Amino acid sequence: MSKKVVVLGGGLVGSTIAIELSKQYNVCVVDIDSKAISKLKRCFGITVEQADVRDRKKLEKIIEDADLVIGAVPGSIGYEVIKRVIEAGKNMVDISFFQEDSFELDERAAYKNVCIAIDCGIAPGISNMILGYHYPNMQVDTYECVVGGLPIEREWPWEYKAVFSPTDVIEEYTRPARFVEHGKHVAKQALSGSELINFKGIGTLEAWNTDGLRTLLKSMEVPNMVEKTLRYPGSMEYIRVLRHGGFFSEQEVKIGDVKIRPIDLTSKLLMPQWELLKGQEDFTILKSKVLGKIDNENVGYEYYLYDKFDKKSGIHSMSRTTGYSCTAVAEILLDGSFHKPGIIPPEEIAGTEGFFPRIINYLKERGVDIEVTRLY
Predict the structure, then answer these.
(1) Distance between terminal CA atoms of the chain?
(2) What is the dihedral of CA 220, 226, 232, 237, to 10 degrees?
(3) Within the chain, which residue ranges are assigned CATH 3.40.50.720?
(4) 4-122+317-368 is a CATH 3.30.70.20 domain
(5) Cα distances (angstroms) measured from residue 30 to each of 3, 77, 330, 350
(6) Confidence (pTM)
(7) Mean pLDDT, to the nearest integer, of 176-185?
(8) Was domain 126-308 assigned CATH 2.60.40.770?
């Protein structure tokens, strides 16, 4: 009998995950938004449930016979959803970009004997795996990563589109950016450390500090680590204006007799403007460097991913790169290759012999190529 996977969240990425997994497994997609799951009703082998995943009893009932749960919900509720999946005793692969420390759930997950693989997208996700793969056999001195997903056509005023919740995108602009510099952990305001980087075939993009290292800050002892987000030049300035003007504030303001959080209004206004519509082409770019020594000899590796909208399937690049990274890990858990109770970051999975090449090959089979260059 085919195993059952429950995907929590039926947005652009969640639906891509569901469609891919439905080729081998029984898949059920859960979302509170009927519009988000309506298109999946027509997909063979996929069932849908309209429900609020924050409802503990409903969630427990929906996942009670699941062999694996996939978390593809907004970051604002991701942590709480993981807690409830743990209590239900289910293994999980998650891609939600929550700000809480996931390792705080490690003891409980281990006690419940469940494996919770977190941050299994493209970045965080593949970005972590690159370092995790080299770390056991290399004295790593420096890890750098720049990554971004952008529309191919630059449209005024934003020159940006997203496959995620606008609130999750805004988190990149407001969370302090944590990184490691000369062995010391540093936190600076998001959007700091800006630089212009030229990419062959793309042109110049703007990079700035974001809080993308996440679990690497605890799991890897590397003297220098940084991750930056890529956008079209000029993006940083208008985002700083919005942030400075209070449009991203979570503090309620009173307008007449109504109290609202500015960030909720901003997200509501930006959602239709940032939404990637059917047929709109996008690309994903990631460049990572791992520098260090092996047997006292200098060694450096560069990983480069450039992926575009798939015209044949109509699936956006950011959905593909994030979704297929997630399903690659899901298959490892579903076939029993890996089971370690607790909170498992992507770098730990990649550090397990054989898994990183398997994941890279899985992506390549689906048209997502990652080039590896030995620098010296």
Answers:
(1) 50
(2) 130
(3) 4-122+317-368
(4) no
(5) 17, 14, 17, 29
(6) 0.94
(7) 96
(8) no
